[in-house]
């Protein structure tokens, strides 16, 4: 099976299974990240899981982070069965104290941390005019504040130990008015701007920070959207298909590994050309926009 056939293969669940991730072809050398330690928040989610598999298959010890211990432990078990190195850490990225305690524990356990990939995040579709304060805060606290707590905690320890580091933040395409997710567009625009500022401020510390803006990547995370919205996502780009979590995983390695050593403050859009063409409606297409169809 070639790579494109693999990408087009449909599976019962949304996204790629652990068995598929364990065997998916990759362009990277098997020892590209040997001996390194990477922290992947949202590591048991759809995209984070692919990132965890790829970094681990390239020789890194992967620490998967999330709130659900069972999901994390099951993944670590699957990774272990394939002979790659991984461990789980339960933490809510919205809790700055828990995040700091986690990084202290990881440095004690491993003596190093080399990369941070922030894939934890999400939102719910709703017209902005109806957002509750609690809902708005949940999305901002998760995607902007939580990502910041992770970045600052990682960077303080790199600075204190004079250790280089790289950060990759998984965001959302913010250049369009993606309908129904204005809260996340606000949060992710904050992360993108913050990453540009930190790329300059932390360059003297040998810390690089980049973002990946995925288009429609089929994962279980899509279940928060209606069936009609999900059915339309593949038509949100000129390739007329969703991307896979592997597309994002390979982009993350490209930015984190030495292949990205002269790249910082950048946002890499991985969306099949969606930002240049197409429409995306997370809550269905409103009548107003149907005029002329
Ligand atoms: C430019 C064109 C090219 C690009 C084309 C791109 C096409 C892309 C299409 C979609 C883009 C993005 C896709 C994805 O990101 S998919 C995967 C991401 N995963 C998720 O989103 C997971 C599901 N989401 C969540 O879990 C939550 O939204 C959240 C991350 C915020 C959870 O945080 P938390 O656990 O802290 O929050 P709670 O669940 O406790 O909820 C807190 C309050 O938030 C309000 N809320 C929550 N859900 C809803 C809802 N469905 N509707 C309305 N309000 C909601 C609510 O006030 C909650 O409080 P209460 O529970 O007390 O009511
Ligand atoms: N799939 C797509 O089409 C797109 C995805 N993205 C973004 O990419 C990232 C990954 O998406 P995807 O893998 O599809 O989503 P998933 O919902 O599959 O995974 C998200 C993960 O984030 C973790 N998470 C959420 N909140 C917290 C928190 N407060 N603390 C710790 N972990 C948390 C969840 O784990 P747990 O429940 O264990 O806490 C979950 O495993 C998200 O930021 C998403 O918005 C962007 C554009 C498109």
TrEMBL record:
One of its GO terms (biological process) is fatty acid biosynthetic process. It is found in: Peroxisome. GO terms for molecular function: trans-2-enoyl-CoA reductase (NADPH) activity. SUPFAM superfamilies: NAD(P)-binding Rossmann-fold domains (SSF51735). Its EC number is 1.3.1.38. Keywords: Fatty acid biosynthesis, Fatty acid metabolism, Lipid biosynthesis, Lipid metabolism, NADP, Oxidoreductase, Peroxisome, Phosphoprotein. It is an enzyme of class 1 (oxidoreductase). It holds the Pfam family adh_short_C2. Coiled coil: none annotated. The keyword Lipid biosynthesis applies. It catalyses: (2E)-hexenoyl-CoA + NADPH + H(+) = hexanoyl-CoA + NADP(+); (2E)-decenoyl-CoA + NADPH + H(+) = decanoyl-CoA + NADP(+); a (2E)-enoyl-CoA + NADPH + H(+) = a 2,3-saturated acyl-CoA + NADP(+); (2E)-octenoyl-CoA + NADPH + H(+) = octanoyl-CoA + NADP(+). Pathway: Lipid metabolism. The keyword Oxidoreductase applies. Belongs to the short-chain dehydrogenases/reductases (SDR) family. Interacts with PEX5, probably required to target it into peroxisomes. PANTHER family: PEROXISOMAL TRANS-2-ENOYL-COA REDUCTASE. Participates in chain elongation of fatty acids. Catalyzes the reduction of trans-2-enoyl-CoAs of varying chain lengths from 6:1 to 16:1, having maximum activity with 10:1 CoA. Has no 2,4-dienoyl-CoA reductase activity. This is Peroxisomal trans-2-enoyl-CoA reductase. The lineage of its organism: Bacteria, Pseudomonadati, Pseudomonadota, Alphaproteobacteria, Hyphomicrobiales.
